[in-house]
Amino acid sequence: MDDRLSGPQSHGETGPCRCDVRGGQTMLVQRNDDRPEIHPDAWVAPTAHLVGNVTVGPGCVIDHGATIVSSGPPVHLDSGVAVMPGAVVRSVGGTHRPAFPVRIGADTLVGPLAALAGCTLGAACYVATGVMVFQGALVGDGTRLSAGSIVHVTTALPPNSRVGLRHYAVPRGDGTPVITADLAEARRLLAAAGFFTEVFGEDDPDLAALHRTATRTLRDEALTWTDTPL
C-alpha cells in the first residue's frame, strides 16, 4: 500500500490530506484495529463520516453527509470516485454473517442518498440519486443506474448496462440479470435468489423468527466493535 495512505493525514490531523474535523464533527473513526486511510490528494468534507477499514484513493471527493462504513471487510475507493451528499457506502458481515466487501472503480459517481452495501462497482459508473445496490452485486464498468433503481443481491450486470428509472435488476436462476419495471416479476426472482440466505446465512418460513434472527445477528456483530473517534 502507498505510504502516503498512512500517518497523520489518515486520521484528520493537519497534513496534506484536504480534510479536517471543523465544527466538532466526528469525521474519522477507528473500528477495532482498523482506521480509515485517505490519500492526500482526496477531498473529504468535514461533515462526512468514515469508519473502520476504509481506503480512499487519490482524487476522490467525499461530500457533506456521506457515510462510508466498514463492519470489518474492506471498503476501497479507487482514484477519482465521487460520493455525493447523504450517500451511504458500507461493507457488511465478516464475523457473524457472510462477508461482503465493497470496491468502487475509478471515476465512478455515487449520487445523493444512494445506498451501497457489500457490492462491487466497476470504473466510470454513474449511480444516480436514491439508487440501492445490495450484497454480492457486481456492476460492470460504464454502467448507468438511474434514480431510484435497485440492484439486488448477487446480480451481475455486464459493462455498459443501463437500469432505468425505478427499475429492478435481479438475478435469474442461471445467473444472468433481468432488468424490469415489473415489481411482481422482481419479487418472484428475488424470492428465488434468497436474500436472507445470502446475507445472513439463514432461512426460515416463519418471517418473524427470521427477522428476529437477523436482528440478533446484527446486534451480536455490533457488540464486537470498539469505535474510537480519531
Automatic annotation (TrEMBL):
InterPro entries: Hexapep, Transf_Hexapept/Carb_Anhydrase, Trimer_LpxA-like_sf. It comes from the Bacteria. This is Gamma carbonic anhydrase family protein. It comes from Actinomadura darangshiensis. The lineage of its organism: Bacteria, Bacillati, Actinomycetota, Actinomycetes, Streptosporangiales.
